[in-house]
Amino acid sequence: MIKISDIYKSPEEREQKKNKKKKTRKVSKVERQDIEEIYNEALLLAKKKMDEAVRYDEIKIEAGDIKVLGKILKACKENRKKILKFFYEQTPSNYLYAHNVNVAILSLLLAMKMVYNEDQLIRVALAAFFHDMGMKNYIDIVNQDKVLKYSEKKKVEEHSNELHYIISAKSDIPKELKEEIVNISSQHHERVNGGGYPSRKNEKDIHHIAMIIAVSDVYEALTHDRPWRKAFNYCHAIEIILGGKGEEFSADIVKLLIDEITLFPVGGKVTLNDGRKAVVIKTRGDSPMRPTVKVTGDGGGNNIKDGSIIDLYRQKLLAIE
């Protein structure tokens, strides 16, 4: 298997990785400001690649692209709660850019729960990030503020195969890796029961990474506004996806999704941004980052027996660290 890290890491970085005896400096967690910068960098990259596809009918996968996705992977590993906060925040006016970034984030978070090494995780990020770049020819159709007609839906379905034609042979990755990424990305609308498109593959013929992207793609789309409808809350989105568990989607991956998005389950212990300790007593389907909590300790490490109950949805100045 081609090591993607060898494409974008400098010789010094590769040498440092080989030298296992060398002491490495402890790196602090990626903080919110850093994550915001990383997320915005990924958004700009998604816009750039979509613009390239529209203007030149061609996209190059460059070493710099892999570096950006490597930053997203690092943020997912080190601060998943904060990267998910950006996943749920309002997307730009053209949602297609944010959609590609968000699907890459969620696909990585799900894949990290499996036995995937770093090189495989970058493959997940690449395939997820480029999965909808084939929409370049259908932007006017999907941006309508009304439900698509049957003929329009059938037309849009052709986007799954577009990557075969627009990912450039001049990319900074080997031909076989390019073909692997394109093959995975083009399967994100296939379904395990054979009812998807473009090739009506069934579970045994669908790449496992494509099944991860399929679940992430649908969940992201459901939980964000679209020109023709408002976003569903995450509970409703999960109900819709559960309706296809085992029929449209891999049951194992749906379970991972449910585990991942329950950010603050009832009974979970959290720390507030003022230092107080609390326990979650109620969650909100429309705002998963802001549950209702009961204070159990002060910032000095002292327990509080009958602490106050705080609805973080209403108390905007407070948040979970």
Quickly list its features.
321 residues; mainly alpha; Hypothetical protein af1432; four-stranded antiparallel β-sheet; 49% helix
Give an overview in words:
The protein is mainly α and about 325 residues long. The protein has two domains: about 30-260, Hypothetical protein af1432 (Orthogonal Bundle), CATH 1.10.3210.10; about 270-310. Helix content is about 50%, strand content about 5%. The protein has 14 helices and four strands. Strands 1-2-3-4 form a four-stranded antiparallel beta sheet, with no helix packed on it. Strand 1 and strand 2 (about 275-280) form a beta hairpin. Helix 5 (about 80-90) runs antiparallel to helix 6. The longest helix has 25 residues, at about 30-55. The two termini are about 40 Å apart. About 35% of the residues are buried.
Number of helices: 14
Largest sheet: 4 strands, antiparallel
Instruction: State the end-to-end distance.
Output: 39 Å
Tell the overall outline. globular
In short:
The chain is built from 14 helices and four strands. It is mainly alpha-helical and 321 residues long.
Topology:
Elements: H1 5-8, H2 11-18, H3 32-56, H4 63-78, H5 80-88, H6 95-111, H7 118-129, H8 139-142, H9 150-156, H10 159-166, H11 175-185, H12 208-222, H13 234-242, H14 251-261, E1 269-271, E2 277-282, E3 292-297, E4 309-311
Antiparallel strand pairs: 1-2, 2-3, 3-4
Helix pairs in contact: 3-4, 3-6, 4-5, 4-6, 4-7, 5-6, 6-7, 6-12, 7-11, 12-13, 13-14
